[in-house]
Give the backbone structure.
Amino acid sequence: MGTKSGAYQDVYIKRDDEMVSLKNDVTDFCEKYIKPVHPKNWDWGIRDFENPENDPTIDEARAVANVVYKDLIDGKQTEVDLSTMDNVEAIKAYLNPNSKYERFNMEEFAFALKVELEHGRVRDVNVTNNHPFLTAMIALAHMTESLTYYKRLKVMEAEGEIFEILRKIENSKTGNEEWYKELGKAEIELREARNELAERLQKMDDIPTLEKIGD
């Protein structure tokens, strides 16, 4: 795993009155928060996320969410000031470990982390260096615009896959049997994605409505 260019703009945060490089903080963060819940292959800085077997787990998502949640609810100055985040009350409710939909939310958050790791070392443009906290910030930036963002993303991706498969079938004179098999799989994925979106919409009653809608 790695990038061709190794591009990475380092980010610094203030911690214990010192500026800490998040490039160097990845392993420290993972050892403190990820390792206790995922003892094997716990260092996201060197983990091969191109292998689906290494996708972030629900327990890992929960560990990262708890760090962000603590930063949001603490009255004192925290590692990163998140108090100005748009729709912060909705995000706090979503991350709340006491939410009645906590497991559903964390399953979704694990998927969100997986998606946003494309901004880390799995792509040529490395923004986060696979830091779990920065990856979470990207995911939450999308969710401040819509709490249904990642469920709708699954639907959109499945619809896009079906569209491209249909184009293949239309333009291929041979080998259509295999493409029809792929079409069947994609249609199943689309049904599942739509069901997940419907479930998300049903499990919003403990999340406040967004104060800010749109840009």
Q: What stands out?
A: The two ends are 36 Å apart (CA to CA).
